[in-house]
Amino acid sequence: MNAPATSSMPRALSPEYRERLMRMAREVSFPEGARLFEEGGHADRFWIIRTGTVDLDMRVPGRQAAVIDSLGHNELLGWSWLYPPHTWHLGAEAVTPLRTYEFDAADVRAECRRDAEFGRTVAEWVGRIVAHRLQAARTRLLDLYGPYGSGGMR
């Protein structure tokens, strides 16, 4: 259930804002199976995926973690960095070797405060992603644990 195309960074931000954001990036890689963050941890960075796949998961008491969504090329990994209290709402694990652009959240938030229009654009981009992922989480959890799945009767 990848995010809609309009939520990928190249389509969501103007060339000027993309360039400004990318000046704050550094390239990092993760091996298959690496945990990038854990639900409840401090969200101090985020990533744009260059290559590879990441699963987003959430803890379910008494069960193994439920995979909520999978992310790939050009998608934003991590949104909790933007909204206080800056705590991860999900966990993330590399399903394949992963190459990303990594961003320091404090630096990006500071740039958003310096330029209100840039900040509004970033917040709208991230907000669209949050809305999509919340719907994906709801659907996936209903499929996994609901009595009739996501298509059942009320």
UniProtKB/TrEMBL annotation:
Ranges for domain Cyclic nucleotide-binding come to 9-78
Q: Which residues form a coiled coil?
A: none
Q: Which InterPro entries match?
A: cNMP-bd_dom (IPR000595), cNMP-bd_dom_sf (IPR018490), RmlC-like_jellyroll (IPR014710)
- Please, which domain of life does this record's source organism belong to? Bacteria
In Swiss-Prot or TrEMBL terms, this protein is called Cyclic nucleotide-binding domain-containing protein
Q: Which organism is it from?
A: Streptomyces gilvifuscus
